[in-house]
Write a structure and sequence with these properties.
634 residues, alpha/beta, Rossmann fold, binds adenosine-5'-diphosphate, binds magnesium ion
Length: 634
């Protein structure tokens, strides 16, 4: 048998292991269960791939995301290692022959989504397979206490009965102490060896910046390090808007979110991975498991929803060891926004009951019926019929899906898309000639950015509301624009398929979920409170705050975060006076926004903002309706 070092050299060409890899590998070879906590980019995959290659038989890997599995399988295949991924969307007969291959074809790695473990066929075949190791990637997904709970992960424990004696390895980059305990319990690990590498990152500066004009600051930050970057935003619309903004500023950028087709996703991801596009603007659908070494900047344009997801997203910067920045941009309106957008849209128990009742009414499902029935579903029609808040209803459907009351098909995310094919000017001429289209087109342009550059997702019922017309009318106008080559219009009437997994029993269906619902609400509320605490604590080193959150002791000041090293030297009395005179000089000529002033003055932005704040507090300056500053006595 080859040694771990020989395998590492032979297949990967690396000459030495990274911290912890060797320890973890040795434990696995000795047949023990292991839980490995290593930072993003720490090299978790090798921890199971090397022993998987050393042992006879096949290594099973459970992973939450299709894209992740496909990447890994491709990488293994390129090294001449036989590997396959059994993801969703593969036909039954094909699954059968793939599993046959695993049993008889000397495959070394089988990647599986956790949902696959529910299928009898898959379970039967696993029983016959010579499995040598079961690896659970992103193992925190099994814990309700974690930030990314996926109930399907709970199926994994069943593998203990199917494959008694096969060692388990759980891997994750983010887990607090209680989550670590919970993972070990849920995976039924036997006396697991827990390996934890400090999550401290020498080369990563965590920063929280209070800025008035986030886009402007973003542009400056991207100009500072002209290398690869990721920008996280909260909505799909914002991914498009920010990437358009950057392109206008001459910075190469693309956008990524859950509503893109699989093809669009992979094209955009590849362009970014290969540095043909520099900046990726994404929702949190972007990035899990993505391995790109030269990301120098990660910016959060909004407050993240939990410190776990923040830490993971921020950790994508600086994997190659170069000095890198992870910046949260914030201003006064963020905190109420986070509370409103996020906490207010979490469904209550009553709301879940209501939605469930309405779903049954909508599909005319009788009491005791419905199990296994499949329905086409127009989400917006459903919401408008029963006057439900769409975000809250959406969260409820996700909750019912996660708790296996029903199953939402993948198409759920697919909606209606529009892109204008003519110039702005040509469009105005067209509208003059066709006034009946005017209100609809203008509502679209006012509501969504970037519709001249990209296929933009639009919400028909929102547009109908704004244009003061019906949904049917909106659709017919857009169809006409499509026919006349004014716009491209894709419309999927049945944007969702819902499968009911249990019979309708009203209260009896929902009551058992109450503890889960309550737990979700209290859990999310707590996570948001912790984010706010982090952002607002300007005294303690940012790196220490994060590490302590994950239960690390003996931390030390990092020396590079925005607490350890405020942007430049502290603003002195003298410096303040200088800035003061220059601001007064500018405002004597004309009103200025803070951004116009920072552009004209050669002082750091936060120093200028600090002086402005003092001047407004003292009454020397007034802020106008247009968000400009003027001298109060003028
Ligand atoms: P994680 O899953 O922990 O985020 P990966 O397993 O994706 O990290 O590994 C991150 C990168 O580090 C990969 O490009 C991998 O090839 C590289 N890597 C892992 N182990 C070593 C090693 N011992 N020497 C050099 N590079 C390594
Ligand atoms: Mg990984």
């Amino acid at each position: 048998m080859n040694s771990p070092e020989e395998i590492l050299k032979k297949y990967w060409g690396f000459s030495s292991f990274r911290p912890l890899q060797k320890e973890v590998i040795n434990e696995i070879i000795a047949g023990r269960d292991v839980l490995a906590l290593m930072p993003t980019g720490g090299g978790k995959s090798l921890c199971y791939q090397v022993p998987g290659l050393m042992k006879e038989g096949i290594c099973m890997v459970i992973s939450p995301l299709v894209a992740l599995m496909e990447d890994q399988v491709k990488a293994l295949q390129e090294k001449g290692i036989k590997a396959m991924a059994l993801t969703g969307g593969i036909h039954f007969s094909e699954v059968d022959s793939m599993l046959d291959n695993c049993i008889y074809g000397n495959y070394k790695f089988l990647y599986l989504s956790p949902e696959r473990l529910q299928q009898d066929l898959v379970r039967e075949r696993i029983k016959q397979m010579p499995v040598n190791l079961i690896a659970i990637d992103e193992a925190h997904c099994i814990s309700q206490w974690g930030h990314d709970f996926r109930p399907a992960y709970l199926n994994i424990a069943d593998l203990r009965n199917l494959k008694p004696g096969v060692p388990f390895i759980g891997l994750t980059a983010t887990a607090t102490a209680p989550v670590v305990k919970d993972i070990a319990k849920q995976l039924q690990l036997h006396e697991p060896v827990i390996h934890q590498r400090s999550f401290h990152r020498d080369n990563l500066a965590y920063e929280v910046k209070e800025v008035q004009d986030k886009n402007y600051y973003l542009e400056q930050a991207l100009k500072e390090h002209e290398e690869s970057a990721i920008i996280y935003v909260r909505s799909r619309k914002a991914t498009v808007e920010i990437s358009e903004f950057l392109k206008k500023k001459g910075i190469s950028a693309s956008s990524f979110h859950g509503g893109l087709t699989r093809k669009e996703k992979s094209e955009r991801l590849q362009a970014w991975l290969q540095d043909r596009v520099r900046v990726m603007v994404g929702t949190n659908a972007f990035g899990m498991g993505i391995d790109k070494a030269n990301v120098r900047t990660v910016v959060h344009m909004n407050l993240p929803e939990s410190l776990e997801s923040y830490f993971q997203e921020a950790g994508r910067a600086g994997r190659n060891g170069a000095f890198s920045r992870a910046i949260i941009l914030t201003n006064q309106s963020d905190i109420p926004l986070l509370k409103n957008q996020f906490l207010a849209t979490l469904p209550s128990v009553e709301f879940v009951k209501l939605v469930y009742k309405k779903l049954n009414a909508y599909f005319r499902i009788a009491y005791g019926e419905g199990e296994g029935s499949v329905h086409h579903f127009n989400f917006y029609d459903f919401c408008s019929k029963y006057e439900l808040n769409t975000l809250q209803a959406y969260n409820t459907l996700l909750l019912l899906d996660r708790t296996s009351v029903l199953n939402l098909s993948e198409q759920f995310q697919k909606k209606t898309k529009v892109r204008f094919l003519v110039s702005n000017k040509q469009l105005s001429y067209y509208l003059e000639a066709n006034p009946q289209a005017d209100a609809v087109v203008k509502s679209i342009l006012r509501t969504y950015g970037g519709a001249f550059e990209n296929n933009i997702e639009i919400n028909i019922s929102v547009i109908a509301g704004k244009a003061g017309t019906t949904q049917e009318e909106v659709i017919s106008i857009l169809k006409r624009l499509h026919k006349e080559d004014i716009a491209e219009f894709e419309h999927d009437q049945h944007d969702t398929r819902i499968t009911f997994l249990v019979p309708r029993e009203d209260e009896t269906t929902i009551n058992p979920l109450i503890p889960t619902i309550k737990l979700q609400i209290s859990g999310k509320t707590k996570k948001i409170a912790q984010v706010l605490e982090y952002v607002e604590n300007k005294e303690r080193c940012r790196s220490r705050q994060l590490l302590e959150y994950f239960g690390e002791e003996n931390t030390r000041d990092c020396g590079i975060c925005s607490v350890c090293k405020p942007s430049a030297e502290k603003l002195t009395r003298d410096g303040m006076r200088k800035i003061y005179f220059e601001i007064i000089g500018l405002l004597e000529q004309d009103e200025h926004s803070s951004r116009e002033m920072t552009e004209k003055l050669s002082f750091p932005e936060d120093h200028v903002l600090q002086v402005l704040r003092v001047l407004v507090e003292k009454g020397a300056l007034t802020v106008t309706g247009g968000n400009k500053y003027k001298l109060s006595h003028l």
